[in-house]
Structures are given as structure tokens and as C-alpha cells.
Amino acid sequence: MLWLVLSWICLWMQVQNPHSIKYNGTMQGLKYIWRTEGLRGLFKGNGTNCARIVPNSAVKFFSYEQASHGILWLYRQQPGKEDAQLTPLLRLGAGACAGIIAMSATYPMDMVRGRLTVQTEKSPRQYRGIYHALSTVFKEEGPRALYRGWLPSVIGVVPYVGLNFAVYESLKDYLLQTNPFGLVEDNELSVTTRLACGAAAGTIGQTVAYPLDVIRRRMQMVGWKGASSVIVGEGRSKAPLEYTGMVDAFRKTVRYEGFGALYKGLVPNSVKVVPSIAIAFVTYEVVKDVLGVEMRISD
Q: In angstroms, how far apart are the furthest CA atoms of the chain?
């Protein structure tokens, strides 16, 4: 439940109107949700998120394995590289490909999850559920609306995934080579140490890519009739902004709210994302070991 609540708070902080701010921090957000919507409000968007995360994870892992084999095959076509193995750089490329494919395949679900999460009882348009939200957006705003904000998401996936893998692998290599504080046993790092490496990777990756996530969320709200009470107003007006594209969204966000607006909700997002990334990395490697699969992230 904590993961869901933090997602809820992060989303609201990213898109809320600066002239009608409901809260500025995580604790204020928790109090506001409990006071205005009660226990039920803590689970808003949970069904959509569950429906999205299962196919997203499946597509991501499948795409990663296929991209790894494909990139390695292409790399081995070069003269003198016939016996080459996957390098960290090649794995970064495979991870980026997997992230883009998985995000694109489930993006409409992510888009409606955002709207379901931030809609209130005062919103003119009330989405009754996942299917109703998808069909309503499709009919009223067109099929392109389901992929509004897709470009900043694609651009954000590359540094996000790239830095996650690069930092994780670099930290592990450094620890294995230097063995500070006796962390290495039998030429292996403990689960706790690998979790710490994953947490560091997640912190750096999501901090660098976070502004693109804010822009993505704001672009997803454009065209929604119920967004006027939620998203950023232009100048001193409380009317929602209309963004013509990613660059325009960046420009207007910084102009009317300052550069710091690009990092709204970073703290609750970090509390949510950093441990999940760390656990994902370690779980992936441990499961591969248990199943006896030869290929691992660290190979």
C-alpha cells in the first residue's frame, strides 16, 4: 500500500495547479488524502496499475533477453568479434530497447492510470474504470491522445535505464576489485551489498530522468475536461495549459513555476522507486542463479 500511496502523492505533486496547491510534501499529502477521501483514496488507480505492471514486466524481460541475443549476434558479425561476449555497454543498449518496447506496449494504461489517480469528485468528467477511461479518451480526444507524452517517456528511458545499469555494474566491479571493508566473500558480493549498489543506481538514474517524467505526466493531462482543477494554470489563470509538444511543456513549466517544478514529487518518488530498482536487480540475478540460467546482468 505504501508504494501506491507514494505514487499517488508523486503524481499529484507533478501536475497540481501552483495557484491552488493542496500540499507541498509527503506528510502533507498523506494527511490531505486521508482527510478528503479516506482509506479508499489511498487505493486510487491500484487496479489500473496492477493491470499495467504485469504485461509491462513480462514484455520488458522478454524484450531484454531477445534484444541481448540480437545485439550480440550483430556484434559478432564484425571481423575479429566472432567469439565476443556481451559487454556492459551492449547490455545497456539491450536494456534501453527493452524499456522502450515495454513502455510503448503499455503506455495507454499508464496514461489512464494517471487520470484515474488525480480525478476528484469535482472533476466534470468521471472515469468509472480502466475500460471506460480508455474508451472515453479514444472517443473524445482521439487515438493519439492515448500516447500523449510518449516522446519524453522514450527519451527518459534511455538515460534512466542506461545509468541504472552503468552505475550498478561499475559499483560492483569497484567493490570486487578493491574489497573495501571486507565486503567480498568467495569472490561474490552479499545480497545486502548488491542491494546498496542497486539503490545508488536507482537514485542517480531516476534523478537525472525525473524532469522528463514530470513533463510526461503533464502532457497526459492535456485535453482532459476534468484537469482544470488539477494541472498547472498559465500565468495567474487557473485554466489548464495546452502544450503543443514536449519542448513547449518544458518551456511553460520553467517559465511559470521555475526550474524546481521539474523535480516536483522527487522525494516520494525516490522513496518508492529506489528500493524497487535495487530489489529488481538483485532478484533478477538471484532467480537466474536459482534456475541455473547462464546469462546474468553481471556476466
A: 66
